[in-house]
Amino acid sequence: MFVERDGRWTRTPSEHFKDCGYCTKTTIADVRGAIEGRTHRLAVTSKDLNPEDADEGSAVDATEVDPYFFDDGYTLAAATGFARVWEGAETLSRFLQTEKGRLDPGVRVVELGAGVGACGLIAACGGAHVALTDVAPVVEDVVRRNIAQNALGEATERAAWPNAFRVGCGSATRATLDWTSPIPDRPFGALDASSLYDADVLIAAECVWLRDLVAPFVDTASTLLKGGVGKLILCVRDRSTSDDPASGKAFAHTSEVIRAFTTAGCVVEELHREDSREDFGKEIFIFSVRAAARRERDEAS
Ligand SMILES: C[S@@+](CC[C@H](N)C(=O)[O-])C[C@H]1O[C@@H](n2cnc3c(N)ncnc32)[C@H](O)[C@@H]1O
Question: Which Gene3D superfamilies does the entry link to (predicted)?
Fold first, then answer.
């Protein structure tokens, strides 16, 4: 998590989040845009789920009980979407700004499990047209708010997704995509024929940390990949509790994620690996995942 202090970029101690659980925070990132020499300032705010920690002037009412608790799509796993920029999202956000990870300007991106939306908004700053997706309560709260907070007006480019706003050199919009439900035919409303299969790239961070999420996530992502989306850039922050994947409890081991994608007919390649700063001994991986048939086609051409 990066914040700006005294005009400098500072890494906030992640212990802060361990201490207070959840608190309203704004993360600020300076992102170099697709047009040389232009830097975009991005602000991503997470939601206060612990009223006692509400900052003064917070947009969230300190006495508010979580209003989405009984909504469709609200689960404990979904509640993590409101909370913060997770460590894997920091890693993916940084990767997307490197030579190796930078997306081509103008590409159409779908972010899965966007949470507060840091990765998708950073990709948008760099020139991508991004649809940030998550379960409905997250999309209609933090995703909507963080797009609005960074919006520079309506996006008019042909490649922009429906209802998108200009963000940095690209654009961002939102859509509901719950991995436990079929991929919606009309994610942007009944009157719009755009499909999530129109994406060039999927991105996702910290979406498969729970074992129960691996199957629905892999099913959704691999269906999109086999349906024509070029690749998934996936950041996995391993939270498993044992080196033996079979003996860990709720948390998935990274090898389980790779195996699930391979079984689903995808090819997984490691692009980047680094140590977790929050959890000694744990690693963070960035993978490229493609449908096996697509990869063969790409390599033949
Ligand atoms: C740990 S958070 C990561 C959020 C963000 N990508 C980040 O790294 O900061 C996991 C995200 O997965 C989303 N999620 C959980 N279950 C989901 C489901 N069934 N369908 C879609 N998204 C889901 C949550 O709402 C949450 O935003």
Answer: Vaccinia Virus protein VP39 (3.40.50.150)
Q: Is the pLDDT of residue 54 over 90?
A: no
153: CA distance to ligand 1 center in Å? 27
- Quickly list DSSP for 136-162: HHHIIIIIHHHHHHH--SB---TTSPT
Q: Which of 24, 27, 32 is nearest to 12 (CA)?
A: 27
DSSP-based three-state secondary structure for 233? strand
30 has pLDDT over 50: yes
Atom of ligand 1 nearest to the CA of 180: 19
CB 83 less than 6 A from any atom of ligand 1:
no
Position 77 pLDDT exceeds 80:
no
Cβ of 115 below 6 Å from ligand 1: yes
Shortest-distance atom of ligand 1 to CA 213? 16
Query: Mind listing the domains of the chain with CATH numbers?
Result: 73-300 (3.40.50.150)
3-state secondary structure of 108: strand
Once rounded to an integer, what is the mean pLDDT over residues 139-150? Answer: 90
Answer yes or no: is pLDDT of 123 > 60.
Answer: yes
